């Protein structure tokens, strides 16, 4: 009886035994610090099924691949290869996974790529590829993941991509693609990640996307020229974790139906022309980490229900037409790192509860109509690196407690109605690089210990009532 011998594995090399002797079927040398050119003798390994040379420092040209008809997995990602993708790759008819991402490949995508119908993953992300996306890619009916982002591709998105019924991931971001989003993409019911950001796409955001793509998890369309309104049916994407539409030309209101996206972590709608109020329903998005609504035409008050967003780390409402007070409930946002409410027409006092935001790194409340005193509780913000309260109507004294902000690098309180002396405690801010207290009613001597702030490069105390000598 003849006993079959198992494959032999030696340091990333797997050998099989098809007929006589042994042949190499797998070569895995990822992350070994290898450099130089990849040898052309690889084409002699005609029984090779897996070739993984990723995460090395290989440069020069791609190895010849035309004779590797049994190759199923080719991973040369994260190297420094500089070459065009050879048309001979179409001879690798068994290829299922091709990953050439994170290199410096040039030239155009060859039409013959579409002849490899068994592809499940095609990853050419972050290269220097030019030209258009071949419609023949629509022939890859087994394709599950397609990454062509971060190149220099132009032209329109082929409608033929709508034939890829098994596609779950589509990355075409950071190119120069133009035209509209093809209606045919709504045929991709298995799609989970649709990433088309940072292109030149126009037209409307497909209104029935919520109906057609029920499995969608990422919808990333930022930095394009999309127009029209946000359709209420967007709320049907209940499994969505990231919705990023910032930097377009969208108008109309924010649909309250977005509260159905209970898994949403990122909501990026800034830098559009959205109007109306901020829906109180957004306070139901308990998993939300990033809320960016700045640079729109939003009006009304900040809903107090936003204080329910316990996972929120980033909150941008700047450059809108908001009114009313900052809700005291925002002091409940214990995970908040950034708060930007600048240029938003807010009034009233700064809530003392903001001193509870122990993780806050950046606070920008500038260019509003805030009044009253600066809360002493802001001295509790031990992680704060930027505080900008400038261009308001704040009065009273600068709290001594601000000297506790040991991480503070930027303090801007200019153009208010602050009075009294500059606290000596500000001399404790050893990380401070910029301090602007100009255009107030400060008086008395300049504290001598401000001269001990070794990192301070910008100090503006002009237009006050200070006296004495300059330290």
TrEMBL record:
<keyword id="KW-1133">Transmembrane helix</keyword>
<dbReference type="Pfam" id="PF13855">
    <property type="entry name" value="LRR_8"/>
</dbReference>
<dbReference type="InterPro" id="IPR003591">
    <property type="entry name" value="Leu-rich_rpt_typical-subtyp"/>
</dbReference>
<dbReference type="InterPro" id="IPR032675">
    <property type="entry name" value="LRR_dom_sf"/>
</dbReference>
<dbReference type="InterPro" id="IPR001611">
    <property type="entry name" value="Leu-rich_rpt"/>
</dbReference>
<keyword id="KW-0812">Transmembrane</keyword>
<keyword id="KW-1003">Cell membrane</keyword>
<dbReference type="Pfam" id="PF00560">
    <property type="entry name" value="LRR_1"/>
</dbReference>
<dbReference type="InterPro" id="IPR055414">
    <property type="entry name" value="LRR_R13L4/SHOC2-like"/>
</dbReference>
<feature type="domain" description="Disease resistance R13L4/SHOC-2-like LRR">
    <location>
        <begin position="38"/>
        <end position="196"/>
    </location>
</feature>
<keyword id="KW-0677">Repeat</keyword>
<keyword id="KW-0433">Leucine-rich repeat</keyword>
<keyword id="KW-0472">Membrane</keyword>
<dbReference type="Pfam" id="PF23598">
    <property type="entry name" value="LRR_14"/>
</dbReference>
<protein>
    <recommendedName>
        <fullName>Disease resistance R13L4/SHOC-2-like LRR domain-containing protein</fullName>
    </recommendedName>
</protein>
<keyword id="KW-0732">Signal</keyword>
<keyword id="KW-0325">Glycoprotein</keyword>
<dbReference type="GO" id="GO:0005886">
    <property type="term" value="C:plasma membrane"/>
</dbReference>
<keyword id="KW-0597">Phosphoprotein</keyword>
């Amino acid at each position: 009886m003849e006993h079959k011998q198992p494959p032999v594995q030696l340091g990333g090399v797997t050998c099989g035994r098809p007929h006589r002797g042994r042949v190499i079927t797998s070569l895995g040398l990822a992350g070994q610090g290898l450099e130089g050119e990849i040898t052309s003798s690889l084409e002699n390994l005609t029984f090779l099924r897996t070739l993984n040379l990723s995460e090395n420092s290989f440069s020069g040209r791609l190895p010849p691949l035309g004779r590797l008809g049994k190759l199923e997995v080719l991973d040369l990602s994260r190297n420094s290869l500089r070459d065009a993708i050879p048309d001979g790759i179409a001879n690798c008819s068994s290829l299922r996974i091709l990953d050439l991402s994170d290199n410096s490949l040039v030239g155009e995508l060859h039409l013959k790529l579409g002849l490899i119908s068994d592809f499940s993953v095609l990853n050419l992300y972050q290269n220097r590829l030019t030209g258009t996306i071949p419609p023949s890619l629509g022939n890859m009916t087994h394709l599950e993941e397609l990454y062509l982002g971060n190149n220099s591709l132009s032209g329109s998105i082929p409608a033929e991509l709508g034939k890829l019924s098994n596609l779950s991931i589509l990355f075409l971001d950071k190119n120069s693609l133009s035209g509209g989003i093809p209606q045919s993409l709504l045929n991709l019911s298995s799609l989970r990640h649709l990433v088309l950001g940072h292109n030149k796409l126009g037209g409307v955001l497909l209104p029935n996307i919520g109906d057609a793509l029920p499995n969608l998890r990422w919808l990333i369309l930022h930095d394009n020229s999309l127009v029209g309104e946000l359709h209420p049916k967007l709320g049907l994407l209940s499994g969505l974790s990231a919705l990023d539409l910032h930097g377009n030309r969208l108008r109309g209101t924010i649909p309250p139906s977005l509260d159905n996206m209970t898994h949403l972590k990122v909501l990026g709608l800034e830098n559009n022309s959205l109007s109306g109020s901020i829906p109180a329903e957004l306070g139901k998005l308990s998993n939300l980490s990033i809320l960016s609504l700045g640079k729109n035409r939003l009006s009304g008050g900040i809903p107090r229900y936003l204080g329910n967003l316990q996972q929120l780390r980033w909150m941008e409402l700047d450059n809108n037409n908001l009114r009313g007070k900052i809700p005291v409930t925002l002091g409940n946002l214990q995970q908040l790192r950034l708060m930007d409410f600048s240029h938003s027409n807010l009034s009233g006092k700064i809530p003392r509860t903001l001193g509870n935001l122990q993780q806050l790194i950046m606070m920008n409340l500038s260019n509003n109509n805030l009044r009253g005193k600066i809360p002493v509780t802001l001295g509790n913000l031990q992680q704060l690196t930027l505080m900008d309260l400038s261009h308001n109507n704040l009065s009273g004294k600068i709290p001594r407690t601000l000297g506790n902000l040991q991480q503070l690098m930027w303090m801007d309180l200019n153009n208010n109605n602050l009075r009294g002396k500059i606290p000596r405690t500000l001399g404790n801010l050893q990380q401070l690089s910029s301090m602007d207290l100009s255009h107030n009613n400060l008086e008395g001597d300049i504290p001598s210990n401000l001269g001990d702030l070794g990192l301070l490069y910008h100090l503006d105390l002009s237009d006050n009532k200070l006296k004495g000598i300059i330290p």
